[in-house]
Specification:
Two copies of one chain form a homodimer. Chain A is an all-beta fold. In chain A, 2% of the residues lie in helices and 33% in strands. Chain A has one helix and eleven strands. Chain A has one helix at residues 147-150, and strands spanning 12-13, 22-24, 28-31, 50-55, 71-77, 85-88, 97-98, 111-122, 125-129, 137-144, 164-166. A six-stranded antiparallel barrel of chain A has the order 3-4-9-8-5-10. The longest helix of chain A has 4 residues, at 147-150. Chains A and B meet through strand 2, strand 5, strand 7, strand 8 and strand 10 of A and strand 2, strand 5, strand 7, strand 8 and strand 10 of B.
């Protein structure tokens, strides 16, 4: 459920330590049709609109060869997200889950990841399908997608009887 | 080819801008068997050793529910990598490719991504298979892996006749 920044029943915030263990440089920006969080999709869709990754100098030469791949991993920075909410209630019903078990934009380091289809490259701009963010979202990295290591078609969601888990803490 | 930090024929460095567009917090560390870059594998292997993701406070509550998934995306920080090398020659033969077309650790923001299999959770520690980094590598984020959006089994590598590409710049 999309929201601004209110806290829901059962949720837990922590005192956020200073985020200065390492520093990021924005290598570009993502141009999408979405101007507010309320209209932005929750996940990128492979039948969604073509969006543009605009690369800034001095990083433009680093795109040489990206058109060798049909698919790319796009890593970006959700600059509007709060970072201190460790337990979250996605359905606002008092049931909570940890930030690391959700694809929520709210996380200690609001790094987003989308697997996109590359349509074409023009100058400093990549045309892609599959991102899910606001227009002008800062871009952090682009990587080739390899089916051999990145594709797990039989990945499952649900409780697994064969899994040893100690959640007694 | 593993190397320390020398520049090869044809490679291009840029003046690295200050990396302060946003700040990261290390949420934990990755424990692996590898103590030097020369012995660290180039990609995580699904038949590799079990490694441990140790989560630091105050982030430990954020792992609640991760054992709902067979597979996770692990995002980490390659703290030893240089960041200014935009054109790279992986085979050291004068042929170069851009950092964004390689899975090299050398990139403007040295963020690494591995799709891992979750074996078990014990206290603040996740036991996983599939990372490819030095022991004590800083951890940035953990996300559930969804086959529906993250698995592209037919992603291809190679030049694509159906792709419109202007690389004339």
């Amino acid at each position: 459920m999309v929201r601004e920044s209110e806290i829901r029943d059962g949720e837990l915030t922590v005192d956020m330590p200073p985020a200065r263990d390492a520093g990021l440089v924005f290598i570009g920006r993502i141009r999408t049709p979405w101007k507010s969080r309320l209209e932005t999709p929750r996940q990128g869709r492979h039948d969604g609109p073509v969006c543009r990754l605009e690369i800034f100098e001095p990083w433009v030469p680093a795109i040489k060869g990206v058109d060798f791949y049909t698919n790319l991993e796009v890593i970006y920075w959700l600059h509007l997200s709060r970072r201190d909410l460790v337990l979250q209630s996605p359905k606002n019903n008092g049931n909570t889950r940890g930030a690391f078990s959700l694809r929520s934009p709210v996380r200690p380091n609001p790094i987003a990841l989308a697997v996109v289809e590359l349509r074409k490259v023009e100058g400093n701009t990549l045309h892609v399908v599959g991102v899910d963010c606001l227009d002008n979202t800062p871009l952090l990295d682009i990587k080739p997608y390899f089916a051999s290591t990145d594709s797990i078609p039989d990945a499952r969601v649900g409780w697994h009887a064969d899994r040893k888990t100690d959640t007694s803490r």
